[in-house]
Design goal:
Oligomer: single chain
Number of strands: 10
Radius of gyration: 31 Å
CATH superfamily of the largest domain: von Willebrand factor, type A domain
Structural class: alpha/beta
Mean pLDDT: 77
CATH topology of the largest domain: Rossmann fold
Shape: extended
Strand content: 15-25%
Strand order of the largest sheet: 7-6-5-8-9-10
Order of helices and strands: HHEEHEHEEHEEHHEHEHEH
Distance between the termini: 47 Å
Number of helices: 10
């Protein structure tokens, strides 16, 4: 019976996985998964999935094959709008909330977009250490005393010495009875990565543009976290000035002011230099903007920062240009002019939510 249940459960998970893959573009563009994100799982609303079976209705309900009827009679009860009509006794359509782990979600994303696995920088690995309990010993700190093993040892001693009283079973451990957990410290190699998100919050970036950035960053996070043991996310917003903020502020800051992109690149380069040595970290800066910049001179400054300070140390630099009715869209042309053939520079035009999936493929399709 348990084997049949396991088989049915696996089959159910395969059906759910197929439905998610089929409608992945819809889920990505509408942000339905993000709204139901927990710590390690995402709840996905799916039409209820039933195993096919015959269902017998009540007798004398009328309809095709039952009771009297004349040519031209309406089949069934006809259409009714939600909220209209009298109370009924028939079930309606229900949505099933299915929980999917972020690892499963990343795997589905990788399969659907045909994303290659990321190869972390060869020797750039951080070695951390983990204590693992491996056995029991007779000495150790009281905080690691194994109470069950201690009790069993004391019980053996009482029985062996004939002092165990069935009517008054009091067991008092002595020093020789005490048992403690023993441990072993093992090296744990980790490929660590940091994602540095930068976003233009100037007057031309509205709520719709920021929602696109929010959706895309969720999926970028999901994929990159599936590729690395340890990962950090940092957030920078900029208009004419740049500052580092937390995740919530990053997505909720109201737009205002002009645009000076170099301010964000300078701050990003400083964070990398001070906190993320490139021989120990895999570094992924992502910048989202509508393509407006203050001046040609500031664009030249951006190009210089990228060429001299960022590209030599990062895995890749990604620029996503979100279409805005108020933005000129010039900056992506400038990046293409200077870095069109550079293997670490990836640009993507995001014309709306429907283009998020294609943009993710642009950024992650090389497996850097």
């Amino acid at each position: 019976m348990s084997q049949k249940i396991d088989l049915d459960h696996r089959r159910f998970r395969q059906i759910i996985r197929g439905k998610i893959k089929k409608d992945l573009r819809k889920y990505i563009s509408h942000g339905e998964m993000i709204a139901r994100k927990g710590k390690d799982v995402v709840s996905i609303p799916l039409p209820q999935v039933d195993i096919p079976h015959f269902r017998h209705g009540d007798k004398q309900q009328g309809g095709v094959g039952q009771g009297d009827g004349e040519p031209g009679d309406t089949i069934g009860q006809g259409e009714q709008r939600p909220g209209q009509g009298e109370a009924g006794d028939r079930p309606g359509e229900h949505m099933l909330e299915v929980e999917v782990t972020l690892d499963e979600l990343a795997e589905i994303l990788g399969e659907e977009l045909e994303l290659p696995r990321i190869e972390p920088k060869g020797a750039e690995r951080i070695i951390t250490y983990k204590d693992r309990y491996t056995g029991i010993r007779s000495t150790g700190p009281e905080s690691l005393r194994h109470f069950r093993r201690t009790f069993k040892q004391a019980l053996r001693r009482h029985i062996a010495t004939g002092t165990y009283d069935v009517k008054n079973p009091i067991i008092v451990p002595i020093r020789e009875d005490k048992r403690y957990r023993s441990w072993k410290t093992e090296p744990l190699p980790q490929s660590n990565a940091v994602i540095i998100y930068m976003m233009d919050v100037s007057g031309s970036m509205g709520d719709e543009q920021k929602e696109i950035v929010r959706i895309e960053s969720f999926w970028l996070d999901t994929w990159l976290r599936s590729q690395y043991e340890g990962i950090e996310s940092r957030y920078i917003i900029h208009d004419a000035m740049a500052k580092e903020v937390d995740r919530d502020t990053f997505f909720r800051t109201r737009e205002s002011g002009g645009t000076m992109i170099s301010s964000a690149y300078k701050l990003c380069a400083r964070i990398i230099e001070e906190e993320y040595p490139p021989d120990q970290w895999n570094i992924y800066p992502f910048h989202f903007s509508d393509g407006d910049n203050w001046s040609v001179d500031d664009t030249e400054t951006c190009v210089d920062i990228l060429r001299s300070h960022m590209l030599p140390v990062v895995n890749m630099f990604c620029y996503g240009q979100v279409e805005s009715p108020y933005g000129s869209g010039q900056f992506i042309k400038d990046l293409t002019e200077h870095f069109g053939d550079h293997e670490k520079v990836i640009t993507s035009e995001i014309k709306g939510k429907e283009a998020v999936m294609d943009s993710i493929r642009d950024f992650l399709g090389k497996g850097n």
